[in-house]
Amino acid sequence: MNPDPVYQRLRELGWRRPLTAAEQVELRIWLAAHPEAQAEAEAEAALNQALTRLPAAPVPSNFTARVWQAIERDAVTKVTHESPRRVWWWRAFLPRLAVATVVVVGRGCWVTATTRRCNRSNSPRVFWPWRRRRSPTRR
């Protein structure tokens, strides 16, 4: 279930900063209309109070440099993870394509050479014994 937008806005403001007097009044009015959310609002307020008492985390002076190093490291890792897929595809299918091309071209050359040899000799039945050669005068 989606929370009420008024209550959600007040919760988010409470996470960022203490609520102003007007916002606290608005929250009390909303809680009076929705008593089932009273326990959740109290727990939220207690959590916000506990978090404000925590000391701020110290940030090192080279924080920005560390962030950029992490970004560059992730970018390099991403590239190395993506490139093996492309290399695998080429390594798997390119040799097969080359062999198939050599076989097809070789077969074509063989058939062409054999056909020319048969046409040069006056023996048409050497290559195709079932085919009859017509004489040039008969059609």
Q: Can you give keywords for this protein?
A:
71% helix; elongated; mainly alpha
Care to describe what's here?
- The protein is mainly α and 139 residues long.
- Helices cover 71% and strands 0% of the residues.
- It contains four helices and no strands.
- The protein has helices spanning 5-16, 21-33, 38-53, 63-120.
- The longest helix has 58 residues, at 63-120.
- The chain is elongated and about 115 Å long.
- The chain starts with a helix and ends in a 19-residue tail after the last helix.
- 0% of the residues are buried.
- The model has no long low-confidence stretch (mean pLDDT 81).
Instruction: State the separation between the terminal residues, measured CA to CA.
Output: 91 Å
Give the number of DSSP strands.
0
Cα-atom radius of gyration: 42 Å
Number of H- or I-type helical stretches:
4
Structural class: mainly alpha
Overall 3D form: elongated
Low-confidence stretches: none
Secondary-structure map:
Elements: H1 5-16, H2 21-33, H3 38-53, H4 63-120
Would you kindly provide a brief summary of this structure?
With 139 residues, the chain is an all-alpha fold.
